[in-house]
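Our working data are protein records whose layout never changes between entries. An example says more than a description, so a record of this kind follows.
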Amino acid sequence: MEIITKKRIAILGGGPAGLFMFKRLVESNRKDLTIHVFERKKQLGAGMPYSEEGANQEHITNVSGNEIPDLVSPVSEWIETVPKETLSRYAIDPENFNDYKVLPRLLFGQYLSAQFELIVNKAEKDGMDVEVFRGVEVTDLVDLPKYEKVMVMTDANDKPEYDHVIICTGHNWPHKVEGSVSGYFDSPYPPAKLAFKTNDAVAIRGSSLTAIDAIRTLSRANGTFTRENGRLIFKNSEDCPNFKMIMFSASGMLPAIRFHLEDSHLQKDAVLSKAEVDQNRLQNEGFLSLDYVFEKNFKEMFREKEPAFYEQIKDMKMEDFVAAMMDLRERLEPFQLFKAEYTQAEKSIKRKESIYWKEMLAVLSFAMNYPAKYFSAEDMMRLRKDLMPLISIVIAFVPQGSAEEMLALYDAGILELVKVDIESKVLPQSEGGIIYQYNDEQDQPQSPYFKTFVDCIGQPALSFQDFPFKSLVQDQRISSAKLKFRDPAVAMSEMKNGNEKVETNGTENYYLDVPGIAINDNFQVVDAYGAFNERIYIMAVPYIGGYNPDYSGLDFGEAASAAIIESLV
């Protein structure tokens, strides 16, 4: 009888990324695998965004059921299995629910959890060797190249060894000031901490979906929403008449509102093939051209679908297109534009007609993310300076319910947006609160004091030094992500102008430090000598933001897990 030696695989984190990775492994139907999942919390599938760590009852998803990657059962089918009292708590009528509806985030977390459990059951039924460790936190990883193993160290003092480890630890908002300065919050998560009354103005840094999360929680703690003649109205509570919220934003813009997507999965087949990437790199000294990606994955999409729009943009460079789109937004008062886009998005959803250029921008964002590690440093700086601000605004996909509340708060005089210069500073005060130091749109210096401040700039792309598994750092099993400059003269100019992210290795080569750690195409970590590690994979987006500048939730989890499974089994 043949003895099968099993390959031991550990998935660190049982949130959405761990869910997609586990699903891939189970679908491989390999009986020669032992699969262990380590999840810090008791609940599988939900991760931070869809659990109480990242949401309250008032928070909703910005994707509908038809837009999420395939799992075991569609959301609309799962809804029929949910107890009536649960659905009533979220005001959901199963008779009127379909896969085009968005869900409350906590309820969506229950859906993901149920899907994870179904996959676990399937694996066990199929005779696969799987085990899930709930309530266990991984504290460190020790690579053992001599034995071709990785030791997983946990808070339970266990030290199991595996052939492969896949890091799926998800979001992380480090505490830097919060806790030492009263009224200062490093992030709005967990949102329960913001459910307090205040009779003062609250300063909110940022105007993204993260800011909207804070706004939805703070507004409910300090007032009520009611509907009058079909219109949503907000009124302050009697005991906090001076409550208001001020968003401070470098862009001075609000994110765009969710509309109907013609392709709910954003043309995943539009991603550049390896052959296309390799061919372009051959023609460009080893670099992938950002202009090529912009032409191929954006402009060309309009040639047949919207020829009139194609004629408008066909000769535009990336910067020209961004300037044209941003100019329109900058000329209009933010909330007036928000109202107009709300009406436009409502029509789009009702008629099931896409706002095509916005959809194609989402396609471009997805398509360029995976091969971004092959951009030159110059192109990455262009991407971050010009294209990413537009992408971050347009493809935020603010849910209609959130947009309606924002407009109600604005109409009530409770919510406003202030544009600040990029040199603006938040100065924590020893007695509590902060001073927001900035120059206004007339370039006049301002320094108002706020008793309460919430930092809402979104998930930060964390640095190499922030990586949680310190043995991998100390043993040089991982390395800081860098991109090479195509033109040394550009690098030297950046250094001369004080760009501390530019460095040289003593040769004629110059590099740009980008956030997080270096990985290869298979999401394997790369060590200090440039060699990839066959044992360690990473899908934890905060730590690979340099090579994946626009990771996008569930879509990213599906795409990354596909690349990993191809390499792994």
Notes: The CA atoms of residues 212 and 402 lie 7 Å apart. Residues 184-255+399-455 form a domain with the FAD/NAD(P)-binding domain fold (CATH 3.50.50.60).
